[in-house]
Amino acid sequence: MPAFATGLQTLDIGQFRNIETAQLSFSPALNLITGPNAAGKTSLLEAVYCLGRVRSFRTHDANQLIRYGQAAFRVVGRVGLSDGRVIPVGVQRRPGSYDIHLEGRPLKRLSDLAGRFPVHLMTGDTVNILSGGPRYRRQSLDWALFHVEHNYRNVWQRYARALRQRNAALRAQAPVPQVTAWNKELVETAVALDRLRRDYLKDLSGYVARELAALLPGKTFVIRYQPGWTQDLSLPVALDKSLDKDRARGYTHAGPHRADFALLVDDRSAQAHYSRGQQKTIIVAFLLGQVKLQHALAAPKGVFLLDDLASELDAEHQARVLSGLAELETQVVVTAIDTQALDLAAWPTHTRFHVEHGDIQEVL
Protein backbone atom coordinates (compact mmCIF):
# COMPACT_ATOMS: atom_id res chain seq x y z
CA MET A 1 0.00 0.00 0.00
CA PRO A 2 1.46 3.41 -0.94
CA ALA A 3 2.30 5.96 1.70
CA PHE A 4 -0.43 8.39 2.68
CA ALA A 5 0.24 12.12 2.72
CA THR A 6 -2.91 13.31 4.41
CA GLY A 7 -4.97 12.71 7.53
CA LEU A 8 -4.69 13.03 11.26
CA GLN A 9 -1.08 12.55 12.33
CA THR A 10 -1.18 13.21 16.07
CA LEU A 11 -3.89 13.77 18.66
CA ASP A 12 -3.54 15.29 22.13
CA ILE A 13 -6.59 14.81 24.36
CA GLY A 14 -7.17 16.35 27.77
CA GLN A 15 -10.16 15.87 30.11
CA PHE A 16 -12.48 14.53 27.38
CA ARG A 17 -15.23 12.18 28.62
CA ASN A 18 -13.43 9.48 30.66
CA ILE A 19 -10.05 10.21 29.02
CA GLU A 20 -7.88 12.22 31.38
CA THR A 21 -4.93 12.67 29.02
CA ALA A 22 -3.66 10.93 25.88
CA GLN A 23 -0.99 11.70 23.30
CA LEU A 24 -1.38 9.52 20.22
CA SER A 25 0.37 9.15 16.86
CA PHE A 26 -1.87 7.72 14.15
CA SER A 27 -1.11 5.59 11.15
CA PRO A 28 -2.06 7.24 7.87
CA ALA A 29 -3.74 3.94 7.01
CA LEU A 30 -5.69 1.80 9.48
CA ASN A 31 -5.92 2.43 13.22
CA LEU A 32 -7.57 -0.20 15.44
CA ILE A 33 -8.98 0.78 18.83
CA THR A 34 -9.61 -2.24 21.05
CA GLY A 35 -10.90 -2.69 24.57
CA PRO A 36 -13.91 -3.85 26.58
CA ASN A 37 -17.29 -2.15 26.57
CA ALA A 38 -17.42 1.28 28.27
CA ALA A 39 -13.61 1.52 28.26
CA GLY A 40 -13.47 4.70 26.19
CA LYS A 41 -13.16 3.43 22.60
CA THR A 42 -16.11 5.45 21.32
CA SER A 43 -14.96 8.47 23.32
CA LEU A 44 -11.70 8.40 21.36
CA LEU A 45 -13.65 8.39 18.08
CA GLU A 46 -15.81 11.18 19.46
CA ALA A 47 -12.69 13.27 20.20
CA VAL A 48 -11.52 12.89 16.59
CA TYR A 49 -15.01 13.74 15.33
CA CYS A 50 -15.11 16.82 17.58
CA LEU A 51 -11.78 17.96 16.16
CA GLY A 52 -13.24 17.94 12.64
CA ARG A 53 -16.88 18.91 13.28
CA VAL A 54 -16.74 20.81 16.61
CA ARG A 55 -19.63 18.78 17.96
CA SER A 56 -20.42 15.32 19.23
CA PHE A 57 -22.15 12.50 17.40
CA ARG A 58 -23.52 11.19 20.72
CA THR A 59 -25.06 14.23 22.43
CA HIS A 60 -26.32 17.73 21.68
CA ASP A 61 -25.00 18.94 25.04
CA ALA A 62 -21.31 19.67 24.45
CA ASN A 63 -20.78 20.26 28.18
CA GLN A 64 -21.21 16.50 28.67
CA LEU A 65 -17.92 16.01 26.83
CA ILE A 66 -15.99 17.68 29.68
CA ARG A 67 -14.60 15.08 32.07
CA TYR A 68 -16.52 15.05 35.34
CA GLY A 69 -15.21 17.61 37.79
CA GLN A 70 -13.01 19.42 35.25
CA ALA A 71 -13.32 22.97 33.92
CA ALA A 72 -12.77 22.24 30.21
CA PHE A 73 -11.68 19.67 27.67
CA ARG A 74 -8.98 20.10 25.03
CA VAL A 75 -8.46 18.25 21.75
CA VAL A 76 -5.45 19.23 19.61
CA GLY A 77 -4.40 17.55 16.39
CA ARG A 78 -1.86 17.85 13.61
CA VAL A 79 -3.40 17.29 10.19
CA GLY A 80 -1.50 16.54 6.99
CA LEU A 81 -2.84 18.28 3.87
CA SER A 82 -2.54 17.16 0.25
CA ASP A 83 -0.08 19.97 -0.49
CA GLY A 84 2.39 18.52 2.00
CA ARG A 85 1.74 20.99 4.81
CA VAL A 86 0.97 19.86 8.36
CA ILE A 87 -1.37 22.19 10.23
CA PRO A 88 -2.46 22.36 13.88
CA VAL A 89 -6.13 22.22 14.82
CA GLY A 90 -7.33 22.85 18.37
CA VAL A 91 -10.73 22.68 20.05
CA GLN A 92 -11.35 23.60 23.69
CA ARG A 93 -14.69 23.57 25.42
CA ARG A 94 -15.61 25.35 28.62
CA PRO A 95 -19.20 25.26 29.86
CA GLY A 96 -21.18 27.29 27.35
CA SER A 97 -18.46 28.16 24.84
CA TYR A 98 -15.91 26.78 22.39
CA ASP A 99 -12.42 28.10 21.66
CA ILE A 100 -11.31 26.86 18.22
CA HIS A 101 -7.99 27.47 16.46
CA LEU A 102 -6.93 26.51 12.95
CA GLU A 103 -3.33 26.98 11.82
CA GLY A 104 -2.64 29.05 14.94
CA ARG A 105 -5.50 31.50 14.40
CA PRO A 106 -9.01 31.69 15.87
CA LEU A 107 -11.48 29.97 13.57
CA LYS A 108 -14.13 32.26 12.09
CA ARG A 109 -16.23 29.74 10.14
CA LEU A 110 -16.69 26.04 10.82
CA SER A 111 -16.82 25.41 7.09
CA ASP A 112 -13.14 26.44 6.92
CA LEU A 113 -12.32 23.56 9.24
CA ALA A 114 -14.47 21.13 7.26
CA GLY A 115 -12.51 22.07 4.15
CA ARG A 116 -9.22 21.15 5.82
CA PHE A 117 -10.19 18.04 7.76
CA PRO A 118 -13.23 16.06 6.53
CA VAL A 119 -14.49 13.47 8.99
CA HIS A 120 -16.77 10.63 7.87
CA LEU A 121 -18.59 8.55 10.46
CA MET A 122 -20.40 5.24 10.56
CA THR A 123 -22.03 4.13 13.82
CA GLY A 124 -25.15 2.25 14.75
CA ASP A 125 -26.98 5.59 14.56
CA THR A 126 -25.87 6.36 11.01
CA VAL A 127 -29.15 4.89 9.78
CA ASN A 128 -30.61 8.25 10.87
CA ILE A 129 -29.83 9.26 7.29
CA LEU A 130 -32.73 6.98 6.47
CA SER A 131 -34.89 6.94 9.59
CA GLY A 132 -34.25 10.45 10.90
CA GLY A 133 -35.97 13.61 9.74
CA PRO A 134 -35.06 15.57 6.59
CA ARG A 135 -32.55 17.71 8.48
CA TYR A 136 -30.22 14.70 8.87
CA ARG A 137 -30.18 14.23 5.11
CA ARG A 138 -29.79 17.96 4.43
CA GLN A 139 -26.83 18.06 6.83
CA SER A 140 -25.14 15.15 5.08
CA LEU A 141 -25.77 16.80 1.72
CA ASP A 142 -24.56 20.25 2.75
CA TRP A 143 -21.50 18.83 4.51
CA ALA A 144 -20.49 16.88 1.40
CA LEU A 145 -20.98 19.88 -0.89
CA PHE A 146 -18.86 22.11 1.35
CA HIS A 147 -15.95 19.82 0.42
CA VAL A 148 -16.50 19.22 -3.27
CA GLU A 149 -17.99 22.50 -4.55
CA HIS A 150 -15.94 25.59 -3.74
CA ASN A 151 -18.78 28.05 -4.43
CA TYR A 152 -21.33 26.19 -2.33
CA ARG A 153 -20.40 27.76 0.99
CA ASN A 154 -20.75 31.31 -0.32
CA VAL A 155 -24.12 30.63 -1.96
CA TRP A 156 -25.40 28.79 1.11
CA GLN A 157 -24.37 31.67 3.40
CA ARG A 158 -26.08 34.23 1.14
CA TYR A 159 -29.24 32.14 1.11
CA ALA A 160 -29.19 31.67 4.89
CA ARG A 161 -28.78 35.43 5.41
CA ALA A 162 -31.69 36.27 3.09
CA LEU A 163 -33.85 33.62 4.77
CA ARG A 164 -33.10 35.02 8.24
CA GLN A 165 -34.02 38.52 7.13
CA ARG A 166 -37.24 37.41 5.46
CA ASN A 167 -38.23 35.35 8.51
CA ALA A 168 -37.46 38.29 10.81
CA ALA A 169 -39.79 40.46 8.75
CA LEU A 170 -42.48 37.78 8.89
CA ARG A 171 -42.21 37.43 12.67
CA ALA A 172 -42.37 41.21 13.07
CA GLN A 173 -45.57 41.29 10.99
CA ALA A 174 -43.83 43.78 8.69
CA PRO A 175 -45.69 45.12 5.66
CA VAL A 176 -45.71 42.80 2.65
CA PRO A 177 -43.17 44.88 0.64
CA GLN A 178 -40.63 44.48 3.46
CA VAL A 179 -41.10 40.73 3.39
CA THR A 180 -41.00 40.30 -0.38
CA ALA A 181 -37.99 42.63 -0.67
CA TRP A 182 -35.89 39.57 0.20
CA ASN A 183 -37.46 37.35 -2.45
CA LYS A 184 -35.01 38.28 -5.22
CA GLU A 185 -31.89 37.32 -3.22
CA LEU A 186 -33.66 34.31 -1.77
CA VAL A 187 -34.70 32.98 -5.18
CA GLU A 188 -31.35 33.71 -6.85
CA THR A 189 -29.37 31.82 -4.22
CA ALA A 190 -31.99 29.08 -3.85
CA VAL A 191 -31.84 28.28 -7.57
CA ALA A 192 -28.04 28.08 -7.36
CA LEU A 193 -28.19 25.79 -4.30
CA ASP A 194 -30.79 23.60 -5.97
CA ARG A 195 -28.67 23.21 -9.11
CA LEU A 196 -25.53 22.30 -7.13
CA ARG A 197 -27.44 19.80 -5.01
CA ARG A 198 -29.08 18.16 -8.03
CA ASP A 199 -25.77 17.84 -9.87
CA TYR A 200 -24.06 16.35 -6.82
CA LEU A 201 -26.83 13.84 -6.11
CA LYS A 202 -26.90 12.80 -9.76
CA ASP A 203 -23.19 12.01 -9.64
CA LEU A 204 -23.46 10.41 -6.21
CA SER A 205 -26.27 8.11 -7.29
CA GLY A 206 -23.97 6.35 -9.76
CA TYR A 207 -21.22 5.87 -7.20
CA VAL A 208 -23.63 4.51 -4.58
CA ALA A 209 -25.25 2.20 -7.14
CA ARG A 210 -21.87 0.62 -7.87
CA GLU A 211 -21.13 0.14 -4.17
CA LEU A 212 -24.58 -1.33 -3.54
CA ALA A 213 -24.15 -3.75 -6.46
CA ALA A 214 -21.14 -5.21 -4.62
CA LEU A 215 -22.97 -5.43 -1.29
CA LEU A 216 -26.47 -6.38 -2.48
CA PRO A 217 -26.08 -7.86 -5.98
CA GLY A 218 -29.01 -7.48 -8.33
CA LYS A 219 -30.48 -4.40 -6.63
CA THR A 220 -31.08 -1.13 -8.46
CA PHE A 221 -30.53 2.20 -6.75
CA VAL A 222 -31.58 5.81 -7.31
CA ILE A 223 -31.74 8.97 -5.20
CA ARG A 224 -35.02 10.89 -5.39
CA TYR A 225 -34.58 14.57 -4.60
CA GLN A 226 -37.22 16.97 -3.30
CA PRO A 227 -36.07 20.61 -3.57
CA GLY A 228 -38.18 22.07 -0.73
CA TRP A 229 -41.16 23.31 -2.69
CA THR A 230 -43.79 21.81 -4.99
CA GLN A 231 -41.91 20.67 -8.08
CA ASP A 232 -44.59 21.74 -10.54
CA LEU A 233 -44.16 25.35 -9.40
CA SER A 234 -41.23 27.72 -9.75
CA LEU A 235 -39.91 29.02 -6.43
CA PRO A 236 -41.15 32.62 -7.04
CA VAL A 237 -44.65 31.27 -7.62
CA ALA A 238 -44.39 28.98 -4.57
CA LEU A 239 -43.34 31.95 -2.40
CA ASP A 240 -46.26 34.02 -3.69
CA LYS A 241 -48.75 31.21 -3.05
CA SER A 242 -47.50 30.61 0.50
CA LEU A 243 -47.18 34.27 1.51
CA ASP A 244 -50.36 34.38 3.58
CA LYS A 245 -49.44 31.14 5.36
CA ASP A 246 -45.89 32.38 5.89
CA ARG A 247 -47.20 35.55 7.52
CA ALA A 248 -49.49 33.52 9.76
CA ARG A 249 -46.70 31.09 10.75
CA GLY A 250 -43.92 33.64 11.00
CA TYR A 251 -41.45 31.74 8.81
CA THR A 252 -40.77 30.92 5.15
CA HIS A 253 -42.11 27.52 4.18
CA ALA A 254 -40.86 27.05 0.60
CA GLY A 255 -37.16 26.85 -0.19
CA PRO A 256 -34.05 24.64 -0.13
CA HIS A 257 -33.95 24.87 3.68
CA ARG A 258 -36.76 22.28 3.51
CA ALA A 259 -35.17 20.05 0.85
CA ASP A 260 -34.99 16.29 1.29
CA PHE A 261 -33.97 13.18 -0.59
CA ALA A 262 -34.91 9.51 -0.45
CA LEU A 263 -32.81 6.43 -1.18
CA LEU A 264 -34.75 4.02 -3.39
CA VAL A 265 -33.70 0.39 -3.85
CA ASP A 266 -35.63 -1.46 -6.54
CA ASP A 267 -37.92 1.59 -6.69
CA ARG A 268 -38.89 1.18 -3.03
CA SER A 269 -38.02 3.35 -0.07
CA ALA A 270 -35.01 1.94 1.77
CA GLN A 271 -36.50 3.19 5.03
CA ALA A 272 -39.99 1.74 4.60
CA HIS A 273 -39.36 -1.58 2.86
CA TYR A 274 -36.05 -2.98 4.08
CA SER A 275 -34.89 -4.52 7.34
CA ARG A 276 -32.54 -2.70 9.69
CA GLY A 277 -29.70 -4.97 8.59
CA GLN A 278 -30.37 -4.16 4.94
CA GLN A 279 -30.64 -0.47 5.79
CA LYS A 280 -27.16 -0.60 7.34
CA THR A 281 -25.84 -2.14 4.13
CA ILE A 282 -27.50 0.58 2.06
CA ILE A 283 -25.99 3.26 4.31
CA VAL A 284 -22.55 1.66 3.96
CA ALA A 285 -22.92 1.88 0.18
CA PHE A 286 -24.07 5.49 0.51
CA LEU A 287 -21.09 6.49 2.68
CA LEU A 288 -18.56 4.67 0.51
CA GLY A 289 -20.09 6.31 -2.54
CA GLN A 290 -19.72 9.72 -0.91
CA VAL A 291 -16.06 9.09 -0.12
CA LYS A 292 -15.31 7.82 -3.63
CA LEU A 293 -17.01 10.79 -5.26
CA GLN A 294 -15.21 13.16 -2.92
CA HIS A 295 -11.87 11.67 -3.91
CA ALA A 296 -12.78 11.65 -7.59
CA LEU A 297 -13.44 15.39 -7.35
CA ALA A 298 -10.05 15.91 -5.66
CA ALA A 299 -11.63 17.12 -2.43
CA PRO A 300 -9.48 17.03 0.73
CA LYS A 301 -8.96 13.60 2.22
CA GLY A 302 -9.84 13.17 5.85
CA VAL A 303 -10.54 10.28 8.17
CA PHE A 304 -13.26 7.62 8.23
CA LEU A 305 -14.47 6.64 11.71
CA LEU A 306 -16.12 3.24 12.20
CA ASP A 307 -17.59 2.45 15.62
CA ASP A 308 -17.88 -1.23 16.52
CA LEU A 309 -17.95 -2.39 12.91
CA ALA A 310 -18.12 -6.07 13.86
CA SER A 311 -21.44 -5.64 15.66
CA GLU A 312 -22.98 -3.52 12.91
CA LEU A 313 -22.21 -5.65 9.83
CA ASP A 314 -21.64 -9.31 9.03
CA ALA A 315 -18.16 -10.51 8.08
CA GLU A 316 -18.72 -10.23 4.32
CA HIS A 317 -19.89 -6.62 4.50
CA GLN A 318 -17.17 -5.70 6.99
CA ALA A 319 -14.56 -6.97 4.56
CA ARG A 320 -16.15 -5.01 1.70
CA VAL A 321 -16.10 -1.79 3.72
CA LEU A 322 -12.49 -2.18 4.83
CA SER A 323 -11.26 -3.21 1.38
CA GLY A 324 -13.17 -0.34 -0.24
CA LEU A 325 -11.56 2.17 2.09
CA ALA A 326 -8.14 0.59 1.52
CA GLU A 327 -8.56 1.03 -2.24
CA LEU A 328 -9.17 4.73 -1.65
CA GLU A 329 -6.10 5.10 0.58
CA THR A 330 -8.32 6.63 3.22
CA GLN A 331 -7.24 6.94 6.83
CA VAL A 332 -9.50 4.79 8.99
CA VAL A 333 -10.06 4.57 12.74
CA VAL A 334 -12.16 1.57 13.77
CA THR A 335 -13.19 0.34 17.21
CA ALA A 336 -13.69 -3.30 18.10
CA ILE A 337 -13.94 -5.45 21.19
CA ASP A 338 -12.20 -8.31 19.38
CA THR A 339 -10.09 -7.50 16.31
CA GLN A 340 -9.94 -11.22 15.46
CA ALA A 341 -13.47 -10.78 14.12
CA LEU A 342 -12.26 -8.28 11.50
CA ASP A 343 -10.93 -9.26 8.09
CA LEU A 344 -7.80 -7.11 7.74
CA ALA A 345 -6.49 -8.70 4.55
CA ALA A 346 -6.66 -5.36 2.72
CA TRP A 347 -4.57 -3.66 5.43
CA PRO A 348 -1.23 -5.46 5.80
CA THR A 349 0.04 -2.76 8.14
CA HIS A 350 -1.87 -0.94 10.83
CA THR A 351 -1.53 0.73 14.21
CA ARG A 352 -3.35 -0.66 17.23
CA PHE A 353 -4.37 1.03 20.47
CA HIS A 354 -5.90 -0.56 23.55
CA VAL A 355 -8.24 1.31 25.90
CA GLU A 356 -8.93 0.45 29.55
CA HIS A 357 -10.83 2.82 31.86
CA GLY A 358 -10.01 5.79 29.62
CA ASP A 359 -6.29 4.98 29.49
CA ILE A 360 -5.10 4.60 25.87
CA GLN A 361 -1.90 2.73 25.04
CA GLU A 362 -0.40 1.86 21.67
CA VAL A 363 0.02 -1.91 21.22
CA LEU A 364 3.53 -2.55 19.90
Structure report:
The chain is an alpha/beta fold. The chain has 2 domains: 1-118 and 300-364, Rossmann fold, CATH 3.40.50; 134-299, RecF/RecN/SMC, N-terminal domain (Glutathione S-transferase Yfyf (Class Pi), Chain A, domain 2). The protein is built from 13 helices and 15 strands. A 6-stranded antiparallel sheet has the order 2-1-4-5-6-7, with helices on one face. A 6-stranded mixed sheet has the order 8-12-13-3-14-15, sandwiched between helices. A hairpin with a 2-residue loop joins strand 1 (7-16) and strand 2. The longest helix is centred in the middle third of the chain and has 33 residues, at 183-215. It is globular, with a radius of gyration of 22 Å. The two termini are 20 Å apart.
Key attributes of the depicted protein:
2 domains; Glutathione S-transferase Yfyf (Class Pi), Chain A, domain 2; Rossmann fold; alpha/beta; 42% helix; six-stranded mixed sheet
- Outline the low-pLDDT stretches: 1-5
CATH architecture of the largest domain: 3-Layer(aba) Sandwich
- What value does the average pLDDT take? 89
What sequence of helices (H) and strands (E) makes up the elements? EEEHEEEEHEHHHHHEHHEEHHEHHEEE
| C-alpha termini separation | 20 Å
| Overall body shape | globular
Considering DSSP H and I runs of 4 or more, what fraction of the residues is helical?
Answer: 40-55%
Range of strand content: 15-25%
What secondary-structure arrangement, pairings included, does this model have?
Layout: E1 7-16, E2 19-25, E3 30-34, H1 41-53, E4 73-80, E5 86-94, E6 97-102, E7 105-106, H2 110-116, E8 119-122, H3 128-131, H4 134-148, H5 152-171, H6 176-180, H7 183-215, E9 221-226, H8 235-241, H9 243-249, E10 260-265, E11 268-269, H10 270-273, H11 276-296, E12 303-306, H12 309-312, H13 315-327, E13 331-336, E14 350-356, E15 359-363
Parallel strand pairs: 3-13, 3-14, 8-12, 12-13
Antiparallel strand pairs: 1-2, 1-4, 4-5, 5-6, 6-7, 9-10, 10-11, 14-15
